[in-house]
Amino acid sequence: xxxxxxxxxxxxxxxxxxxxxxxxxxxxxxxxxxxxxxxxxxxxxxxxxxxxxxxxxxxxxxxxxxxxxxxxxxxxxxxxxxxxxxxxxxxxxxxxxxxxxxxxxxxxxxxxxxxxxxxxxxxxxxxxxxxxxxxxxxxxxxxxxxxxxxxxxxxxxxxxxxxxxxxxxxxxxxxxxxxxxxxxxxxxxxxxxxxxxxxxxxxxxxxxxxxxxxxxxxxxxxxxxxxxxxxxxxxxxxxxxxxxxxxxxxxxxxxxxxxxxxxxxxxx
Length: 268
Fold this sequence. Notes:
Layout: H1 4-17, H2 23-33, H3 39-64, H4 69-88, H5 95-115, E1 132-137, E2 143-148, H6 150-167, H7 172-181, H8 187-212, H9 219-239, H10 245-267
Helix pairs in contact: 1-3, 1-9, 2-3, 3-8, 3-9, 4-6, 4-8, 5-10, 6-7, 7-8
């Protein structure tokens, strides 16, 4: 099972680069590699690995000063009840039906991202009364100023926490596009902030799986995969300096399409 370490490295690097945690790649792989295991065990392994990945990646992004901590704390709090509910309901929902619906949703999101890269958004100078304005300065001196409706962000985070915990996919593949297109986050700030949010969400869901006993058979795969992601995550964060924001979103769109198709195949 030592080959799980290089797999974890790839998941850690790519997942951190696009702020998705890597669970969207790991979960289908686990289901294919361990067909004898229940979906709950695969989900618990994936979320535990996502936690170590996002924890390591968040440290690297923190040193770059790309994390919006105020937004991260607000949205993390919203993901916790969703993550708990999603972990508990894994065994009570038709996986085939949910895979079908979610696969179609992700393919639609991929089409949206890949077709909308050339459309520039106009940033409103006059912010709405209840919008929260954020100002961040990266280590290299890059300045970001943006505003968003925090209530919309809380609602979206609650949804992301539930869905990502239910499927074991981390949630960044949903959260990053929502932060960018609906809440006006700069791409690099969205990927870094999403990563820190996923750390809280995945830790919460993992604790639930541990208490329910679903994690008992996944300790060794988790350890080996986690070794890989702990090495790969900082590399993915450093690579983000060399990748333009549009390319990150394109990569995310391709990843969404791939996972959507894979989940639909799983549902057949």
